[in-house]
């Protein structure tokens, strides 16, 4: 059996020739349009962003450009940005990923949609570990099991 290479993209080349900044912008705008209308996610974003979505969208273009085009345009720190939010729970990540998949599949050819979705899922996983995982608590991510005292 062939082994996967240790570094999947050693030269830091764009991960797919059909991904460019224009596609990223269309995807991000369409996705956050859906997020804003979602009854669970909409209020979380509204509380954090108020009316000013544009700076967030610009940041997200840079983020996806770094992830898929290897441009290094994104310089932020996603973990503290999400730790500051109140009321985010694991099921919100399922909604987020569902909307992201729907948008990517609507706007991109299947192979390209899969690239975005797989990366979003990986990043969501590591964000959730940072936000909810507490060693010693139950696998329900930070929900203390009955009888366990809070620390
Ligand atoms: C439950 C799921 C999520 C919620 C509710 C959420 C919410 C938010 C909000 C409200 C902001 C703006 C924070 C601010 O400017 O004060 C933000 C920023 C951001 N989010 Fe998320 N997010 C979620 C999942 C994700 C996922 C899965 C990714 C990546 C695939 C992601 C990537 C980012 C990035 C890169 C920023 C910009 C951070 C910065 O540099 O300021 N988010 N998110």
Q: In CATH terms, what is the architecture?
A: Orthogonal Bundle
Rg measurement, Å: 17 Å
Mean pLDDT: 90
Helix proportion: 55-70%
Descriptors for this entry?
single chain; 151 residues; mainly alpha; Globin-like; 6 helices; 60% helix; globular; disordered C terminus; binds protoporphyrin IX containing FE
Please tell me about this protein's structure:
This protein has helices at 21-37, 41-49, 53-69, 78-83, 90-107, 110-132. The protein is mostly helical. It has a single domain, classed as Globin-like, CATH 1.10.490. The longest helix is centred in the C-terminal third of the chain and has 23 residues, at 110-132. Residues 142-151 have low confidence and may be disordered. The structure holds protoporphyrin IX containing FE. Residues 41, 44-45, 48, 56, 59, 63, 76-78, 81-82, 85, 88, 92-93, 96, 120, 123-124, 127 line the site of protoporphyrin IX containing FE.
Short characterization:
With 151 residues, the chain is mainly α.
List strands and helices in order, with pairings.
Layout: H1 21-37, H2 41-49, H3 53-69, H4 78-83, H5 90-107, H6 110-132
Helix pairs in contact: 1-3, 1-5, 5-6
The protein binds protoporphyrin IX containing FE.
Protoporphyrin IX containing FE is lined by residues 41, 44-45, 48, 56, 59, 63, 76-78, 81-82, 85, 88, 92-93, 96, 120, 123-124, 127.
